Amino acid sequence: MTERKMFYGASPTLFEQAKRLRENMTYHEKLLWEKIKSNQIHGLRFKAQHPIAIYIVDFYCHKLKLVIEVDGKNHMEKDQAEYDADRSHELHDFGISVIRFSNQEIEQNIEKVITEISNLCLNLLRHISSE
């Protein structure tokens, strides 16, 4: 795996922005991070605030090409929802899957969120091993 492949040509400026975001994660991002960091889900490594091309995604597992996004209230606004859809489409063009959870889902039922992530990871692992 090359660094370029993992970051899809992200700029040095984006790496600096990602570092700042890691240092200032939202409450809900921190809740989810505590559950997925340190290979807790099927031994998979997730990276927080990871640069990909021109974007910084909340969490990324390179082995599965999986992005997990945590959406606050602003993601319900029309302009933000359209931006999110365009961004997800561009990530899909790289072969990256995107799953989104609202702050409310994370706060009210983190275990259900983790189960959904775990199940998706298992399905993606099966797909990888069958190739």
From TrEMBL:
Q: Where is the DUF559 domain?
A: 16-119
Show the InterPro entries listed in the entry.
Answer: DUF559 (IPR007569), Endonuclease_DUF559_bact (IPR047216), Restrct_endonuc-II-like (IPR011335)
Query: Would you tell me the protein name for this molecule?
Result: DUF559 domain-containing protein
Q: Which domain of life is it from?
A: Bacteria
Pfam families per UniProt? DUF559 (PF04480)
* Species: Roseivirga spongicola
SUPFAM superfamilies, sorted = Restriction endonuclease-like
